[in-house]
Amino acid sequence: MRERIVISVSGKGGVGKTTTTALLTRILIEKTKTNLLVVDADPVLNLPRALGIEVPDTVGSIATKLRKSIDDGAISGSVTKQDVLEGEIFESLIEGDQFDFLAMGRTEGEGCYCFVNRLLTQILDRLSQNYEITLMDMSAGLEHLSRRTNRNVDMLIIVVDASRAAYEAALRIRDLAKEVHIEFKKIVVIGNRFPPGMEEDLRGKLEEEGLELIGMIPSDDELSKANYQGTSLIDLPSNSSGVLAVEAIAEKLGLLGDATFLKLLGKSS
Ligand SMILES: Nc1ncnc2c1ncn2[C@@H]1O[C@H](COP(=O)(O)OP(=O)(O)O)[C@@H](O)[C@H]1O
Ligand SMILES: [Mg+2]
Questions:
Q1: How many angstroms does the Cα of residue 14 sit away from the middle of ligand 2?
Q2: What pLDDT, in 10s, does the model give residues 208-251?
Q3: Pairing mode, if any, of strands 186-192 and 36-40?
Q4: Substitution site in 8, 19, 160, 227 for ligand 1 pocket (most atoms within 8 Å of beta carbon)
Q5: Distance 175 CA to ligand 2 centre (A)
Q6: Which residues pair with 217 in a beta bridge?
Q7: Which residues contact 149 (CB under 8 A, 6 or more apart)?
């Protein structure tokens, strides 16, 4: 098994995080034999549809149930909270032929969920040890960074569209990542749905901020149609412009070959 890596896809709401995550998933399962865990860390839960999968239980819904059991005194004595939660979460893991899937969802109810959130972090950390690549679709908010629910993250992909707000969000995400001491080995930016001809301008702007533009995803009609019909992006034609763009990005990131990838992370094999 090759080096384990966690990739988080972040950015302002609506910029294309879920689309990017789904297309990366598609490329990884199509082009590699990567042992892959895909995580929907956005409570809105758009990723399952984009991947064409049903999600009966989320980590959050299980955590909520656990919280109730603790309040009711149903859990005590020999079993620890962590044991219970961990066991249940492994049940909520959806094991597919080509990749495994976990939906974080959200916890409900009142009170402090600090311990639950801490457990989720630990469990995700542990779970990701079992996979070569863990690919996480993050929520638009920055709280996941400050809560450090994606500690030990190797690579941060920030998606921007052609809006000032998305650009500023990208800079904030970068700064926050530094503030909370999340050690990203690599931070890259993807430009999604920019009008043609804007790539070099964006690249220059980002470079001044010390950020690398790794590629652009064009506005893709096939993708829009799939989105309208609510069908999976896994089934998009291979020659659709969005798929081709993300394939080029995956290649550039070294995700399609072992050696490049290790070099990218500054690790020797
Ligand atoms: N390159 C693209 N071409 C066409 N439609 C896109 C593209 N990128 C995103 N979209 C559409 O824009 C909307 C928002 O994208 P999404 O990936 O859900 O954003 P986020 O996850 O960042 O909120 C979705 O309806 C998606 O299908
Ligand atoms: Mg999304």
A1: 7
A2: 999 999 999 999 999 999 999 999 999 999 999 999 999 999 99
A3: unpaired
A4: 19
A5: 21
A6: 192
A7: 41, 117, 120, 121, 124
